[in-house]
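Why do we bother with holo predictions? Because pocket geometry can differ from the apo form. Keep that in mind while you read this record for magnesium ion.
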Amino acid sequence: MTDEFDTTVYYDDDADSAYVEDETVAVLGYGSQGHAHAQNLADSGVEVIVGLKEDSSSRAAARDDGLRVATPKEAASEATIVSVLVPDTVQPAVYADIEDELEAGDTLQFAHGFNVHYGQIEPPEDVDVTMIAPKSPGHLVRRNYESGEGTPGLLAVYQDATGEAKQQALAYGQAIGCTRAGVVETTFREETETDLFGEQAVLCGGVTELIKAGYETLVDAGYSPEMAYFECLNEMKLIVDLMYEGGMGAMWDSVSDTAEYGGLTRGEMVVDETARENMEEVLEAVQNGEFAREWIAENQAGRPSYRQRRIAEKNHDVEEVGERLRDLFAWAEDEEPSENDSEK
Ligand code: NAD
Ligand code: MG
Ligand code: MG
Ligand code: MG
Ligand code: MG
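The structure, written out:
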């Protein structure tokens, strides 16, 4: 533990493997997070059963990786810790199927707080409800574990029935490699609301709208789509890489003085008071549950609006230009595909 930050950060020394070594973990789902948690736990000496439907195409993969596979219900029945790693939208249905297998003192473990925070899963009072959320897609959680590095993560306790919920969550975090890098303590509410706001207003929604608006502004003014693509989309990565490595300061230091002065004076003309008020509205809809209700209803209706927006986004000019240009140039490095990124 350290007081270096406002928040508490836990490392390997704060975790005691005794809190998981005699437990059996049911890992429900074998996707991005599921495969990584299951294999890391097993390699750390924890008993693991992967819970998948009889007809799941992931069953073969889990078996090939040397893991025991059962139905979610069977796995949960045998387990003392049930790690819910199916997609957030299917968690309530999977939970309904395994609910009766939870015994007093068992643990329900999550990697994201949406369903618990918005009341889509209401665990019984006598089980521990915890979260270890790696801040990384699953393939990195696995790769970092194998290479001896760690993956930073978040820890939260929603319900502590046994008095040991936090110690056990820390031990789980250690077993999947998170405490090697550091685990930050938060709450289900804070993790859920900041995650949703970030992906909506800044990371996924904000960035794509900013790119499209910039691209359209240039093209509508008569500039070539290729130039607009380079300036508004392609260069985004270079700028973000600099900020990732050294904060905004490193980016400002790297660009020309002209770019720095122009950015410092014009940026706030674009993201102005109105944009900030809009962000507040987005945050409010996250906080009061309006967004969650909308997304749950959208799923129940078969995702009509989601489908339509996906198609429109795919057909945007900037996508067609980009596809053409990425094929033409050598800078389209063959990086690993970003499978199931967290911000989905
Ligand atoms: P995913 O979509 O990669 O995988 C889900 C797996 O669940 C599938 O591979 C399949 O095995 C199973 N599954 C799918 N549909 C099912 C159904 N109808 N019934 C039963 N099983 C089904 O999921 P993920 O991205 O690993 O997300 C799991 C959890 O981890 C979520 O709560 C998510 O928010 C959280 N999380 C994800 C990431 C990430 O980078 N992917 C990062 C942090 C937290
Ligand atoms: Mg059980
Ligand atoms: Mg327990
Ligand atoms: Mg330039
Ligand atoms: Mg998210």
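The pocket of magnesium ion (ligand 3) is lined by residues 80, 105-107, 128, 162 (CB under 6 Å).
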